[in-house]
């Protein structure tokens, strides 16, 4: 089998080279090419709670693209689809620490959980107080009592943005963490793949998806979904919107709620298609009596070149909306400044 | 065959043999990971074991316990994912318990560390399904060869199971019929032990 063509120089150096590019075009960031840690290069208020996230690479702009004023202080970038090791997370934690404690935002995947947990212990040895917020927003995993629990996916963006604003505002580490757990409890996601993705250096996609079929309930690591269904002849976006919103609504009733909505591309879907989907998602939410307070459409939490989309929602309050609207200045998310 | 006692040289040979087997079988381990995970188990473990061998070339510890402990720490620092912490903890805890004791009881301490960290039990379709019977075989005084066979049977037993831990758990029933790659790596660890302890 012929290797899939990728715009890389050396597949083995994909992460390092990508970070080199990030550093080249964002001189305001501090990029550690040895540890694969990206952190804010600007001055932070002493005592500000530090926000750290991280995970496997391949989900860009998550997480390194969300480092900056009003969002993350540092991100640890693992190998493609593989969580960073404890040393990397510790390095990110130190880079984010300005004396007020650090909050780890961790997506619920066994590898991420174990490595962040080990890093939190190492940070404790260095007298950095660490609180952990576990993101598990994926409603596709229904029987979470019998699995590793729901995955952390698109909802991670809501958590990172809201907590970033809360930390800038001066909340204490325990308050930031408590707010994070509240945002997680309000967030739900559901993803669909129209084609799989191939990790750099591999000659085969993560799963086979015959033409005419789509995977429902995918995660963000190129792993297969929960089930496979035929792609309808027409109204594909409508069908995806209906399926995703129904799955979310069944888990978290949406009627009369004000929502943050993310229509997230998986990396290989054009904005034109995502906008079609966004129209269908908003119509679907309207029909269920939910109100869209703010929405984002684009590639934010991706799986390399996978085609498909993920719908994420977060029920809001006026306080949460204020934090969402607060200024943010990062490579991938920027407003109010 | 009674207690298996390891000296530093045998422990080094064991891990080098394991690294060699991981090199040989990395593609196969990754193929096992493809249907249920994200197709990188072999590649990740290979990266870790290369780092372990490189660390020993720089400096080889002088007790078997220190050899395993160092190998474990190196895996934790290089592999990432779930395999790094789990295989790293297995070797590190085993190493810490080894000096002065026999291998079976040290491996029991390693197994306990893995179970404590990952929360998986026998039947959850993880490496614990291969590790547990292998450790029990050594504890019962059986040979490394028999321990490797017990690990292989344990790894095969993961095929009909619905995974409850790790990334394979997200597939539910769709994961049935696939062998857990972490369990298969445990088979390689005991196959390597059999090679050097023979």
From TrEMBL, chain A:
Keywords: Kinase, Transferase
The organism's place on the tree of life at top rank: Bacteria
GO annotation, biological process: glycerol catabolic process
Alphabetical list of Pfam families matching this protein: Dak1 (PF02733)
Keyword Ligase belongs to the record: no
GO MF entries: glycerone kinase activity
GO cellular component terms, A-Z: cytosol
Presence of keyword Ligase: no
Alphabetical list of InterPro entries matching this protein: DhaK_1 (IPR012736), DhaK_dom (IPR004006), Dihydroxyacetone_Kinase (IPR050861)
DhaK domain span: 10-335
NCBIfam families: dhaK1
UniProt protein name: Dihydroxyacetone kinase DhaK subunit
């Amino acid at each position: 089998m012929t290797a899939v063509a990728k715009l890389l120089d050396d597949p083995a150096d994909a992460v390092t080279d990508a970070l080199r590019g990030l550093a080249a075009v964002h001189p305001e960031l501090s990029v550690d090419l040895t540890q694969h840690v990206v952190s804010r290069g600007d001055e932070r208020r002493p005592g500000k709670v530090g926000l750290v996230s991280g995970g496997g690479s391949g989900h860009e702009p998550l997480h390194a693209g969300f480092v900056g004023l009003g969002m993350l202080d540092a991100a640890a970038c693992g190998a493609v689809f593989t969580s960073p090791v404890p040393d990397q997370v510790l390095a990110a934690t130190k880079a984010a620490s300005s004396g007020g404690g650090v909050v780890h935002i961790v997506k619920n995947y066994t590898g991420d959980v174990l490595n962040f947990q080990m890093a939190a212990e190492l940070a404790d040895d260095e007298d950095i107080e660490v609180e952990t917020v576990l993101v598990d927003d994926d409603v596709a995993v229904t029987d979470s009592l019998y699995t590793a629990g729901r995955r952390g996916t698109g909802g991670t963006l809501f958590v990172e943005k809201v907590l970033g604003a809360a930390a800038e505002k001066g909340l204490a580490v325990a308050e930031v963490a408590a707010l994070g757990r509240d945002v997680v409890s309000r967030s739900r996601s559901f993803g669909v793949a129209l084609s799989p993705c191939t990790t750099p250096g591999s000659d085969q996609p993560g799963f086979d998806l015959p033409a005419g079929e789509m995977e429902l309930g995918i995660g963000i690591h190129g792993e297969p979904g929960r089930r496979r269904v035929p792609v309808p002849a027409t109204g594909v976006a409508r069908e995806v919107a209906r399926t995703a919103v129904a799955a979310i609504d069944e888990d978290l009733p949406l009627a009369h709620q004000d929502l943050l909505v993310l229509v997230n591309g998986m990396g290989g879907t054009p904005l034109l298609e995502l906008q079609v989907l966004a129209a269908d998602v908003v119509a679907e939410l309207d029909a269920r009596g939910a109100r869209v307070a703010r929405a984002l459409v684009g590639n934010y939490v991706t799986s390399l070149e996978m085609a498909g989309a993920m719908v994420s929602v977060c029920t809001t309050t006026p306080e949460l909306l204020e934090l969402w609207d607060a200024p943010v200045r990062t490579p991938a998310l920027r407003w109010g400044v | 065959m009674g207690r298996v006692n390891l000296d530093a040289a045998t422990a080094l040979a064991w891990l080098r043999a394991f690294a060699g087997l991981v090199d040989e079988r990395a593609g196969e381990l990754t193929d096992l990971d493809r249907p249920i995970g994200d197709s990188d188990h072999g590649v990740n473990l290979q990266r870790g074991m290369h780092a372990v061998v490189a660390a020993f070339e720089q400096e080889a510890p002088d007790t078997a316990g220190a050899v395993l402990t160092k190998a474990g720490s190196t895996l934790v620092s290089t592999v990432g994912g779930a395999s790094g912490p789990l295989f790293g903890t297995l070797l590190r805890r085993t190493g810490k318990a080894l000096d002065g004791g026999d291998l079976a009881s040290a491996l029991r301490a390693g197994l306990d560390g893995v179970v404590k960290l990952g929360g998986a039990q026998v039947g959850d379709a993880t490496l614990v399904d291969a590790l547990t019977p292998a450790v029990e075989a050594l504890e019962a005084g059986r040979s490394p060869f028999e321990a490797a066979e017990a690990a292989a049977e344990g790894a095969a037993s993961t095929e009909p199971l619905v995974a409850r831990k790790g990334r394979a758990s997200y597939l539910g029933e769709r994961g049935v019929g696939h062998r857990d790659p972490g369990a298969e790596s445990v088979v390689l660890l005991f196959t390597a032990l059999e090679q050097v302890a023979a």
